[in-house]
Amino acid sequence: MTHDAADPPYLQVDDLRVRFSTADGEVRAVDGVSFGLGRGRTLGIVGESGSGKSVTSLAVMGLHDPTRTTITGAITLGGRQLVGMPDDQMQKLRGRDVAMIFQDPLSALHPFYTVGRQLVEAYRTHHPGESKAQARKRAVDMLGRVGIPQPDRRFSQYPHEFSGGMRQRVMIAMSLMNDPALLIADEPTTALDVTVQAQILDLLADLQREFHSAVILITHDLGVVSQVADEVLVMYGGRAVEHGTVAQVMRGPQHPYTWGLLASIPSLHGDPDVDLKPIKGNPPSLINVPAGCAFHPRCAYAMKPEPCAADVPQLLPVLADGHRVACHLPEDRRTSIYTEEIAHVGVAQ
Amino acid sequence: MTEPLLKVRGLTKHFAVRQGAAGGKALVRAVDGVDLDVHPGETLGLVGESGCGKTTTGRMLVRLLDPTSGSIEFEGRDITRLGRSAMRPLRQDLQIIFQDPYSSLNPRHTVGKIVAMPLEVNGIKPPGGIKTRVQELLELVGLNPEHYNRFPHEFSGGQRQRIGIARALALRPKLIVADEPVSALDVSIQAQVVNLLRDLQRELDLAFVFIAHDLAVVRHFSRRVAVMYLGKVVEVGDRADIYERPRHPYTKALLSAVPDVAAFGEPRQRIRLTGDVPTPLNPPSGCRFRTRCWKAQDICATEEPALITRDGSAQAVACHFPEPAGPEAAVLVPAQATAHVSEVTE
To answer: In what order do the strands lie in the sheet with B43-47?
Structure first.
């Protein structure tokens, strides 16, 4: 994937905050996230369960229940403001300008209808003037494009007649029916076997080149990100803690949480007898996020109580171009910790 | 070499399923002739994709499923057909840890009761009482012994997996089958549990059969590794051999498909298999991998390759055209494979 710096960001998210009210209290699922993404670029959003990565993407899709959810900040998609957009307008964008691929294709496809019927519906919703025959032709084309053999025959089959990998291809075909400028893939390969995952990741990269869309890839798997993304946004406790190119984040990570992730994952290449270095403790509850930096209770390098337990660190640029990190540690200290303690453990080695 | 603790020969499990509207019977050949040895204190990793039979194998090893045929010997004694009561004393030596820390713990029982259950069922009265022993176990797996009276829902996923481990350790087993013990956990928690299992193994001299689909986790945890495909072991050997010098095309393809952060930015050989794993209802004739293999010849469809060692290598491989053994093997690309193999730089 090429770096096209001239593209203005097609998607711009500014200070996004998403809150849910629940019986237990207010959940701060996303707490001030900002990033931009140009067409032709892939952003990997990485984080563990409860980091806010899926909630962020659902906000971009306008899929939160408005009666329970408070969304503030700005989401600009191709010049249009999505936060506060009436639902009938949002519906016109959804599926056409921005489309989504979910983790579990079996529950995202309707079991009663043939995949062909679902693909045709996705197309004709946004192209009411087109005939059924034209829509069918496009659907069969698209099934072929995503690598489904005998697309003509498969068009008339039901979701249960497809294997997991093939079903995910159907989902991808459906998301591409209307040439979306932004494609959000939420854990698209997590449910798949590794050889099939490799096929789907290749397919996504090929299609992106062809359609020049912007892609947000949400995953917990840093390996997947390192393979297909241009940029990485690391999320923790509803906030962005690190953002940069894949090379910057994988080869010179700056945030202690990113270090923890890299040192927690065993590698296929390093010394298997070196013990992993897990992050101690558990991710925070989003109802009761720790004061200051949300990561400070698990951080081995936190300066307590001040400033780490008191002030929320801002996502600020570090020396390398475009690389940003939200951490109170001075940059030279971060660099020395990384080289001395992290760079030889897990996949960081 | 010492006598194996566990010796498995020709292990087979076929499930009868109804097929089609007429309700005709068909056989799912989930496990179809597996040989394995596990030595005291060692870890054998069992890897493969979904449907390869690794979980079914694991469950047969601890006799949660009855094999269709084949034999399982534990410490030289054939346990394949032992009944419930004859199995009971053996359950002390053979334990299992399950993948899902939510469904494998009874939500109505306290943690204390869950961990004490194996002791009570087997009528074991540890010195100092059951409660003391349970608290020791909780401490051993890194849980607060004072949480004895809490219920599973009060714990996080990683802590629940620790409870499952404490229960498996209660009877001081010699062998634990760990079936995907970390795959339901977040990355940072995975590492905590993997480190715990490694510490316990060193301390207690446990043998493990470690079943997982994550090749990097298996490499980190296992001395020897067996690779399964559609109910068969296709390759087995020492960790270094399997990961550095894979000889079966499937092992090679599997390793090449893993997205590894550590390999980021380095040019690497990439093999892309086409299609999905065929159904075990009607596996391909001859070599089961041949439908996705770039090296397949006529013989692969007619003759099933035996799992054998050759060329003086200790690594056993079931392939008519294995990759050469030796240190240079990993860099060789077969000429026929050009359609599937490409050099890529990321």
So the answer is: B94-97, B175-179, B207-212, B43-47, B224-229, B232-238, B316-317, B308-309
